[in-house]
């Protein structure tokens, strides 16, 4: 760790205020270029602690930057992990107030729900599939607190990996019966297909993203508990949205899920 606990608390307070007040900021590594990975996750943990102490529940986890499309779009090279708070969850067919967000983008994802704990090191696709209750299509709405979505990995980790809203819906799928690598997804904005991909875009197999998360948490002595919802990361580039937009994700064999922006 390069930052003291006071600085970590101050940065967490700052980034969370930007989230709650829908205003952007410069990336924090501009001011703290020496901060390390532990500092970045400590800031994210402090944001999580602030929410929990205010009565919010943590309803899931997410992996991000798990596809080459996303890594290329954001100019970074390693997956990152964050948490999902209760108020991030939007009902299927529901609407999102764009005024509560800075510059939202949507991305198509496969969400996993576990039925057994997953603990690294050594977690792999097989262990993840064995521990998966079901998979379900998800649209993640990301909203980096950094100006123009310009960040480096440590800054984005501190900012809870741009987490902001998500919706899951459509049909539940049996992860071991489906071939998640060839599972096709189509993201539509206002009825027009705007992004396409297949599960393999995420680290060769979306379950790899969950295994990687279990291994990262394992290194910290933590596990993914049974019953956890986890977003495995955008399959395609994220697509910007504006008030009035309707977004639908169609996933092969798993129906569709929609949200609107007002
Ligand atoms: C970081 C979050 C990325 C994903 O699925 O790749 C993410 C960002 O691009 O702002 O959620
Ligand atoms: Mg995502």
Helix-strand blueprint:
Blueprint: H1 5-21, H2 37-53, E1 58-64, H3 68-74, E2 80-85, E3 95-96, E4 105-114, H4 125-130, E5 132-142, H5 153-158, E6 163-168, E7 184-189, E8 192-198, H6 206-219, E9 229-231, E10 239-240, E11 246-251, E12 256-261
Helix pairs in contact: 1-2
Bound molecules: 2-oxoadipic acid (OOG) and magnesium ion (MG).
The site of 2-oxoadipic acid has 16 residues, from helix 3 and strand 5.
The count of strands amounts to 12
Named CATH topology: Fumarylacetoacetate hydrolase, domain 2
| Overall number of structural domains | 1
Report the average pLDDT across residues.
97
Shape: globular
Please give the largest β-sheet: 7 strands, mixed
The CATH superfamily is known as: Fumarylacetoacetase-like, C-terminal domain
List the total number of helices.
Answer: 6
Structure in words:
With 262 residues, the protein is of the alpha+beta class. It has a single domain (57-261), classed as Alpha-Beta Complex (Fumarylacetoacetate hydrolase, domain 2), CATH 3.90.850.10. It is 26% helix and 27% strand. It contains 6 helices and 12 strands. The chain has helices at residues 5-21, 37-53, 68-74, 125-130, 153-158, 206-219, and strands at residues 58-64, 80-85, 95-96, 105-114, 132-142, 163-168, 184-189, 192-198, 229-231, 239-240, 246-251, 256-261. Strands 1, 2, 4, 5, 6, 9 and 10 form a 7-stranded mixed sheet that branches. A hairpin with a 4-residue loop joins strand 11 and strand 12 (256-261). Helix 1 crosses helix 2 (37-53). The mean pLDDT is 97. Magnesium ion binds at residues 62, 64, 107, 109, 140, 142, 231, 233-234.
């Amino acid at each position: 760790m390069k930052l003291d606990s006071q600085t970590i608390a101050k940065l967490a307070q700052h980034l969370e205020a930007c989230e709650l007040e829908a205003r952007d900021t410069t990336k924090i590594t501009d001011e703290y270029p020496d901060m390390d990975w532990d500092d970045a996750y400590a800031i994210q943990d402090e944001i999580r602690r602030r929410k929990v102490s205010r009565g919010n529940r943590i309803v899931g986890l997410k992996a991000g930057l798990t596809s080459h499309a996303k890594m290329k779009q954001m100019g970074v090279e390693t997956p990152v992990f964050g948490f999902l708070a209760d108020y991030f969850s939007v009902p299927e067919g529901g609407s999102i107030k764009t005024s509560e967000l800075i510059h939202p983008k949507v991305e198509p994802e496969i969400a996993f729900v576990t039925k057994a704990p997953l603990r690294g090191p050594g977690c792999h696709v097989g262990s993840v599939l064995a521990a998966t209750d079901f998979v379900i299509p998800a649209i993640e709405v990301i909203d980096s607190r950094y100006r123009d979505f310009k960040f480096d990995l440590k800054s984005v980790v501190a900012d809870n990996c741009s987490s902001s809203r998500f919706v899951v819906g459509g049909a539940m799928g049996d992860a071991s019966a489906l071939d998640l690598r060839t599972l096709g997804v189509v993201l539509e904005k206002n009825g027009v297909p705007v992004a396409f991909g297949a599960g393999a875009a995420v680290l060769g197999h979306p379950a790899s993203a969950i295994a990687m998360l279990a291994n990262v948490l394992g290194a910290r002595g933590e596990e993914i508990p049974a019953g956890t919802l986890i977003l495995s990361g955008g399959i395609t580039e994220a697509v910007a949205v504006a008030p009035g937009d309707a977004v639908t994700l169609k996933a092969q064999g798993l129906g569709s899920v929609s949200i609107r922006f007002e």
